[in-house]
Amino acid sequence: MLDFVIKRVIQVGIVVLLALTVVFFLIRLSGDPTPLFLPPDAPREQIDEYRSKLGFDRPLLVQYGEFMKNAVQGDFGNSLRSKEDALGMVLQRLPATFQLAISALVLSLLISIPLGVLSAFKRNSIFDRIAVALTVIGQAIPSFWFGLLLIFIFAAQLKVLPSGGGGSIVHMILPTLTLAAYSIARFTRFTRSTMLDVLRKDFIRTAKASGVPTPRLIARYALKNSLIPIITLVALDLGTLLGGAVITEVVFSWPGIGRLLLQSLLNRDFPIVLAGVFIIALIYAVINFVADLLYAFVNPQIRVR
Amino acid sequence: MKKGYFLAVLLVLSFVLAACTEGTAGDSESASDAKGEDGKQKDSIVIGFESDAATLIANSDVNYVTDAQIRSIYDPLIDRDGDTGEFVPVLAEEWENIDELTWRLKLKEGVKFHNGSDFNAEAAKFSIDYILDDANQSFYKSRWSDIKEVKVLSDYEVEIITSKPFPSLIERIADDLLIMDPVYVNDVGTEEASKKPVGTGPYEFVEWSRDNYLKLKAFEDYWAGPAKIKNVEFRYIPEFSTRLSAFVSGEIDMFKNVPVDSVEKIESDENSKIAETASARINYLALSTFSDGPMKDVKVRQAMNHAIDVDELLEAVLNGHGTKLTGPLSKINSGYTETDAYEYDPEKAKELLKEAGYDPESMELTLDTPNGRYPMDSQVAQAIAAQLQRIGITVNVQVNEWGAHLEKVRNREIKDMFILGWGPAFDAQSTIENLFTEAGPYSSFSEPGLEKKIYETNEMFDQDERYDGYAEIQKALVEQAAWVPLWQQSDMYAVRKDLDFKPKVDEKILPYEMSWEN
Q: In this model, does residue B24 exceed pLDDT 80?
């Protein structure tokens, strides 16, 4: 077990380092950030002076070496624009992003698992057909459009909910719905299909034949055996929810990491972008690691090697 | 099973609630809450902004969004009159030019900072020194590098010594400089002062939740009398459609930069209006003489001016929201002189091209444009391409992300033409010097004879002489068809109908000057 954990921790480290390396070189392709910060009438010598002060005039590999050296010590430098500690700025946004991602995840699970189970159990009924149709719509609707639609209806027309901003539960309703829409659809479809697979298995028939009551049959026999693939999916989606809620955060003015990252990318505030990528990659890798541990917990058949 | 499921739901719900009450994202109340039902107690205003301020310390970030927000917290020494563009005293009462290198400013007495300390000459010196100090990495520094020293003569008198003649110093003071409290900044350090600003302005700092809002309240001891609107909130809403919805639903009371295609929607709302002014920001089509293309030939540039119908662009693309520009400067600029516009005359354009040895039918040009930086910029580019097509020229429109566009312009990589804006500009010098010399790539036009004249004129200390010089330069630039002037942008604000607000040409949004009717 300890071997497994050590091995996985090393893997997490490698994943994060690789992600940082790729992003480091990719954002440099977008060009030099210095002119964006200085006034438009700044003469060329001033731009050059500033560029060398920020270190952007050095060879790329030297910059990379320097960045990595500091990054492994947790120092991502200061934001080019606000001069604040970049990692600090990202961490400051983390709770808001967590809040949104977790509420969206919880909402999706609360809706999708019962829905998927029932759908599978009452296969081909009207209920099942409606549920399947809804999941197709849920997966097809772009969150950008869905978010704006919700804002238009509930904020601009009905005036019952705020159009955005962070803070109270009221502010969370629309962004949570938007963010959860896709996951609900995905989880429901997935739960339904795994349940269908399991329900066809011999042991279910045996259990049914020996008179196990239906609720117990579903919960103890069928659902438990469908959980492993669902956990994988949830783990992957949680990573996406945490790192990829960019659109929802921007549409709803939610003060989270996604919005900060997008803005920093447009401003070419490299230190913030890299610090953000670091945090997201780390979260993603850690969640997957935890999911692997959970498999073993749910199904002792999966032995940890 | 039922019981188990119920328990699970309960558990999860309590988890959600726990996550919510962390107060992690701060707590913000909507404008309607703050204002009470139907705005009974109208002493608050919520202003929607596209993004957060970079920092709240003064004299650091040149970005408009930052400046607009901190200008209510800090006062300048000198300001500009919103209508005439003339200088008006604020914390400086008088200023005089002792000789070409020395300026003396007399400061206002009895002004207090929000924390109670006195405003004096030390504060003025500190604020200028702050820009000059390398450690602060101020983005303003490039504009102030000719300052040699700031001397405190007495409690309320400073002397500014420049290393070379700096005729536009007063402009710099008016446009850039805001006054900070040296005692406070030294006490708490710049990092803290960047988050909790102290100034002498009409509003004092209350709370700043990053990417969320900035709250200010009226400073009751303000030297010019306390503000009528007592509470100000800047709320950050990055997505335009959301900003518009927030305005329609009453969450915010105003926002700037209404796109021309949304004007009608706002005007049709009974509680809203559009406030519009011709801004000091100009948009133009630059014709690059920096690359070896047809634009090097003055006849081709003149042909472009004849082939592009600016009136049509204004009407068809901008719905009339813009003020036509005919020369290098807008009427707002000091030193502006009236120049003749090129008539729209496609036949003449074809003739000029033939004289220059080009067959329009076989000409292929590239037009670079940003997307969303200026009102309808990429649409304007498409329309220009269509107009040039009428005389047979094929134009490939290249749409760039803003940062990439700016870099292409700065690196002189643009082949033929590009769309760009400039401003807010009030003085002839900064526009002419930065746009029409070899050193400034923003119009990518320069001509050696004219360049010499520009530098000579800049150094002239006598204002009339200088303005005469700029008038000649403007005429020469039009003859040379240095660019295709388009228009002064229209600044459009969506505003609540009962808010007394007058837009300013310099884009400043000052709640101190606003009030609610009734």
A: no
Identity of residue B79: D
Which among B1, B51, B407 has CB closest to A219? B1
| Cross-strand bridge partners of residue B367 | B397, B417
> d(Cα B253, Cα B234) in Å, to the nearest integer?
10
Domain A86-304 has CATH 3.40.50.300: no
Beta carbons of B78 and B124 less than 8 angstroms apart: no
Name the pairing type of β-strands B231-236 and B44-49: parallel
- Nearest residue on chain A to B409, judged by CA atoms? A35
Mapped onto helix, strand or coil, the DSSP state of residue B139 is coil
Q: What angle do the packed helices A169-199 and A143-150 form, to 10 degrees?
A: 130
- pLDDT, tens only, B179-214: 999 999 999 999 999 999 999 999 999 999 999 999
Q: Residue B276's beta-bridge partner residues?
A: B492
Between CA A83 and CA A254 the distance in angstroms is 22
Output the six-digit token pair for B393.
Answer: 């020229």
User: Which chain B residue shows the shortest CA-CA distance from A36?
Assistant: B403
Phi-psi region of A291 (alpha: psi -120 to 50; beta: other; left: phi over 0): alpha
CATH number of B278-491: 3.10.105.10
Q: B347: number of CA atoms within 13 Å, CB side?
A: 0
Other C-beta atoms within 10 Å of B506: how many?
A: 23
Predicted confidence (pLDDT) at residue B84 exceeds the cutoff of 90? no
Sign of CA dihedral A39, A41, A43, A48: positive
Check B242 against A53: CB less than 8 A apart.
Answer: no
Taking contacts as CB-CB distances below 8 angstroms, the residues of chain B near A152 are 245
Q: Which two tokens stand for residue B82?
A: 């919103």
Which helix (H) or strand (E) is B286 found in, with range? strand B272-287
Amino acid at A143: S
Q: Label the pairing between strands B364-370 and B394-400.
A: parallel
CB B238 to CB A30 under 8 A? Answer: no
**B369 touches B400 (CB < 8 A):** yes
Q: Give yes or no for a contact between B403 and A268, defined as CB atoms under 8 angstroms apart.
A: yes
- Fold classification of B74-182 is Dipeptide-binding Protein; domain 1 (3.90.76)
Amino acid symbol at B472 = E
Given a contact cutoff of 8 angstroms between Cβ atoms, the answer to whether B123 and B182 are in contact is yes
How many CB atoms sit inside 10 A of residue B81's CB? 12
- The ranges assigned to domains in chain B are 74-182, 278-491
* Residue spans per domain, chain A: 86-304
Of the partner residues B19, B140, B213, the one whose CB lies closest to the CB of residue A99 = B19
**Contact present, B17 and B11 (Cβ < 8 Å):** no
Q: Cβ A36–B24 below 8 Å, yes or no?
A: no
Q: Report pLDDT digits (tens) over B141-157.
A: 888 988 999 999 999 99
ipTM reported for the complex, 2 dp? 0.85
